Amino acid sequence: MKIDEIQTVCFVGAGSMGCYNAIWAAVSGYDVVLYDINPDMLDKAPQRCLDMAGYLAGAGYCSAADIPAARQRISLVADLAQATANADLVSESVFERVDVKREVHAQLDSVCPAHTILTTNSSTLLVSDIEDVVQRPDRFAALHFHMASPLVDIVPGPQASAAVVDILERYVHSLKGSPLVLKKEYPGYVLNAVLGPVLTTAQALVIAGVASPEDVDRAWMNSRSALIGPFGLLDLFGLNLIYDKWQHRADDGAIPGLRSGALDLLCPYVERGELGMQSGKGFYRYPEPEYQQFGFLASPADLASIAEPLTMALVASAVLVAAAGVAEPEDIDRAWTVGVSLNTGPFEILQQLGAAEFLQRFSRHVDSGWFDARRAATVTAFVETL
Fold first, then answer.
1. Is residue 95 in some structural domain?
2. Which domain does 353 fall in, by range?
3. d(CA 189, CA 51)
4. Which end of the chain is more exposed for a tag (fewer CB within 10 A), N or C?
């Protein structure tokens, strides 16, 4: 059911995320305007939306019979002022660069009606990176959707009103989504902040020659009862996107000094155009990747030593999010289980291990260079309080 405060939603950026969010709103009954500065992107948007609608129907957000009417609710507009003229909510999904997003939100602020709520779908940039260019900070927030997941992060800026946060939360519920309102902004929000170090550790294991991508995925899928492993996820996200993020990030992440090796690992794939699922080939071939085939999980080798660094990265990164006061442990577990469709959250894993056992294993993990020693002190101190 639509909420009263929102009737029309404008999505700025007709790429994968913009089209995904647009069709999701449309099947939920909202009138949708999809805008892009690039005419070619708008030309391709109807097919993108149709492809995304098939997923939404398969996941139970709508029926196949709902899709034709939903498509009729979507208007494609190439003029920003026209696209936003009746918008109650704007969701921006443009290129993940702070200068581009700041420019777009300054334009949106100048053309949107006074009541319009402005949101960014950024996956890495903070609200405070953008907020000062708008004259309506009380009506500005991050509303971050995760592809193929009901989880939606809501990150209000320091001046966002409680009423606007309430509207956004009820809007997500109206989509049959699962909103997570963060207490404060944090790089990567919750799910990406927890998942990122797992993916980084997976790449580090391959770069160091400890394991192949296939064995890393086998280790993770077996230990966590997961349907996809870290390298399958990298293929899903797009190797070009991961490569671009490594190019523009500081070299001081969960495993300092890894940036050069990660770029060397990914560069040949990007140069060959093997970008993952979108191109039909990445670390795996698609549409029938090896990790979905019978027998993939069987391995003559003991994979426990590969699974443990991944699990330690998962729990430790979740502890850092909680220690920063971003969300409560139970909400972090919910973000993880909802976001990646697994039954066990990082704090539940910690509880199963026990604090003493975790800290003993984590210490070995840090000593082996699989986690930043500076952050490790924060993890240890927080766990000792539990």
1. yes
2. 190-386
3. 27
4. N
**102-116 burial, b if ≥16 CB within 10 A, otherwise e?**
bebbeebbebbeeeb
Predicted model pTM: 0.90
Domain count, the chain: 2
Same-domain status, 353 and 246: yes
Token digits of residue 41: 């992107």
From first to last of its 386 residues, the chain has per-residue pLDDT tens of 899 999 999 999 999 899 999 999 999 999 999 999 999 999 999 999 998 898 898 888 899 999 999 999 999 999 999 999 999 999 999 988 899 999 999 999 999 999 999 999 998 889 999 999 999 999 999 999 998 889 999 999 889 999 999 999 999 999 999 999 999 999 899 999 999 999 999 999 999 999 999 999 999 999 999 999 999 999 988 999 899 989 888 776 678 789 999 999 999 999 999 999 989 999 999 999 999 999 999 987 889 999 999 999 999 999 999 999 999 999 999 999 999 989 899 999 999 999 999 999 999 989 988 888 889 999 999 999 98
Looking at the structure, tell me whether residues 358 and 226 fall in a common domain.
Answer: yes
Residue 3: inside a domain: no
Distance CA 6, CA 161 (A): 16
